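[job 4471] stage=fold_predict status=RUNNING
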Amino acid sequence: MVFLIKSYLQDRYQRVLVDLDSNKYYSKWESVTDGIPHGSVLGHLLFLLYINDIPNVMCDVSNPVLYAEDTSLIITNSDNQMFEKDINTAILQLSRWCNSNLLLLNLEKTYFIQFLTKNINPADLHISYKNRQISSMHSSNFLGLVIDNNLSCRCHIDQIIPKLNKASYLIRSLKPLLSFESLKMVYFSTVHSIISYGIIF
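[job 4471] inference complete, writing structure tokens
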């Protein structure tokens, strides 16, 4: 088993191909010193093992939630100044972990959401890393569920309505062609699966 993993990770090479106006330009082959083959089956498991210690290096100010390559940090504090400090501390800790593990924190995909109740106004937070402002979002797609800063279902419903419209059109088109049992199968695979996904939340 050790030999198989070693051969999977070592002696691999890559090069860059640039296709300009039907002319192809190739770089020299270079040895891959870090990482694993992209898109491989074993790659996902090795990546999960690789990042599994993130919760251990984060201090008490945040609660990390890991799923595949997505990492979310949940931070709570009723004091706005301490809240902002906790967020900046957590981002700094995460970026240090990334640097020490030969990974990069993708600031293009890094943002934060303030979850609010109706009686609380959003805090004026300034979150940045390496002199780059991290933007605030009103909603985010988390494992297929659209969560907004008020924890309402409105954004999620707005996202699934077009999918349900397409599914309804499909069922209406198939109705003259299929039996009732077949239509039920189509319903459960196209409509019910969308409506029931994440319903527990």
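[job 4471] summary: DSSP finds six helices and ten strands in the chain.
[job 4471] exit 0
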